[in-house]
Amino acid sequence: MIRTKDVTGGIHRVEAKRLADEIAETGSYDLTKYPHITGVFSDDDIYSSNEPYVIIEINGTLYRVEYKANGDNNIVVVNCAFGAIFLLMIVLLLYIRQHIIVPFGRLNTVPQELARGNLSVEIPEEKSRFFGKFTWGVNLLREKIEDDRQRELSTQREKKLLLLSLSHDIKTPLSAIKLNAKALEKGIYKDTEKQREVAQNINKRADEIEQFVSEITKAASKDFMTFEVTQGEVFLSQVITKISARYVPQLETCGTEFSVQKFNDCILFCDPDRLGECLQNLMENAIKYGDGKRIEIGFDRMDGCQLITVCNTGCTLEEKELPQIFESFHRGNNANKVQGNGLGLFICKRLMSLMGGEVYAEIQGDRFCVTLIVRLA
Questions:
Q1: What positions does the domain Histidine kinase occupy (predicted)?
Q2: CA pair distance 50, 100, nearest whole angstrom
C-alpha cells in the first residue's frame, strides 16, 4: 500500500491521456471533467511541486499533470482497523482474566481441601455467569458431604448403642441357660418332670437369644444408603436420547452392536434423573457381564405402565441365582473376574420402588434381560 503511489498505472493515466487529447484539439482544458487530476503545469512551473505527477508531451510541449494519490488514506484506514482490533483483543483478554482466570484461581484449592475432609473451607461466591453456577454446585456438594457425614455418624452411634443394649440383654438369658445346663450336668434334678421344666426353660431362653440375634441382624442389614426421589413427568424419548448419546460412542469403540427398538413416545411419571440412573446401571451391567456382541433396549406397554428392557448376549448366570441378584452386595457366579460391589441392581430396585414402579430380571436363552416398569402419567 505504501508503494501504490509509485505505481505508474491507474485511472489518472487514462484521464491524463484524455486531457492531452483535449489540449491538442482545443488548446485549453476543463479540470472538472477529470476528478483524479489536481493540476496541469508547463514551462517554468513544471517542477514547482512535490505532488504525484506524470509528464505528458503535447505538440512538442511538456506538461506536468498532478493527480490524487489514495495510498495514504488507505494506510490510515487499515491502521485504524488494526488499532481497533488490537484494542478489542486487549479488552477481551482483560475480560477473560477478570471473569475466568481470577475466579478460577480463587477456587483452585477448594477440591484439595474437600478431599482432605475440610468441609469448612470457604468457597467464594461468584456472580460470573461462567463460574456462578459452578461455585453454587460446589457449595451444594460440600453441604451434601457434610450432611452425609453427620447422618453416617448418627447411624453409627445408634447402631452402637443398639448393639450394646442387645449385648447386655443377651447376658441375662445366657446366664440362665448356663445355670440350668450345669444343674442338669451335675444331676441336681432327679425328677423327670423337673428336668423337663428345666429343658423348657433353656429352650425359652434360647428363643430370647435368637430374637436378640435377629434384631442385631436386622440392625446390621438396615438400609445403609439414603434414596430420595422427586416425582415429575418426562418424555420417554428424552430419557432414551440421553442414554443413547452416552453409550453409542463407547459401544462403537468396543465393537458392540447397540440397538434401540422403535417405541411410541409417552409421558412417564417418575424422577427423570433417578430413572436415568437406573438405566445407566443396567447398561453398565450389560457391558460388564455380557459377551460384548450385542446390547438391546426394548419397549412394551402394559396396564398403564411403560416397560423398558435392557438385554445383553452372553449370559452365564444360573436361573437359581435370579431371586438373589437384587440383594445388596450380592454378586453372581459370573462376576468372579469383573470388578464391582453388587449394588447396581439393588439400587435399581430401591429407586423403582420409591417411584411406584418395579424391576425384574429373566434369562432368555443366552440373553440376560432386566425390565423396568414405569408408571405412565
A1: 165-377
A2: 55
Residue indicated by cell numbers 402419567 = 377
pLDDT tens for each residue of 31-63: 888 888 888 887 766 666 677 788 888 887 888
pLDDT tens, position by position, 109-120? 777 777 777 776
Predicted confidence at residue 8, as pLDDT, reads 45
CATH number for the domain that contains residue 358 = 3.30.565.10
Q: pTM (2 decimals)?
A: 0.53
Q: Give dist(CA 311, CA 136) in Å, integer.
A: 39
Q: Which residues lie below 8 Å from residue 48, measured CB to CB, with a gap of 6+?
A: 41
Residues of the chain where predicted confidence (pLDDT) is lower than 50: 7-8
Residue 133's alpha-carbon distances to 126, 136, 139, 140, 222, in angstroms, are 8, 5, 10, 10, 36
Evaluated on CA atoms 363, 369, 375, 377, the torsion sign reads negative
Query: Contacts by 131-134 with C-beta closer than 8 Å and gap 24+?
Result: 131/99, 131/100, 131/103, 131/104, 131/107, 134/107
Residues 237 and 202 in one domain: no
Q: How far is CA 369 from the centre of its chain?
A: 27
Long-range contacts of range 15-22, CB-CB < 8 Å, 24 or more positions apart? 15/67, 16/54, 16/56, 16/65, 16/67, 17/56, 19/56, 19/65, 20/56, 20/58, 20/63
Q: Which residues span the domain enclosing 303?
A: 232-375
The whole-angstrom distance between residue 36's C-alpha and the CA centroid of its chain comes to 65
Indicate the residue type of 376.
Answer: L
The C-alpha torsion from 109 through 112 and 116 to 121, rounded to 10°, is 30
Q: Cβ(124)–Cβ(106) under 8 Å?
A: yes
Residue recorded with cell 434423573: 273
- Domain identity same for 90 and 131: no
Strand pairing of 294-302 and 257-260?
parallel
CATH code of the domain in which 182 resides = 1.10.287
H helix intervals, 4-43: 11-26
Distance (Å, whole) CA 135 – CA 220: 38
Residue 227 lies in a domain: no
**Cβ(372)–Cβ(359) under 8 Å?**
yes
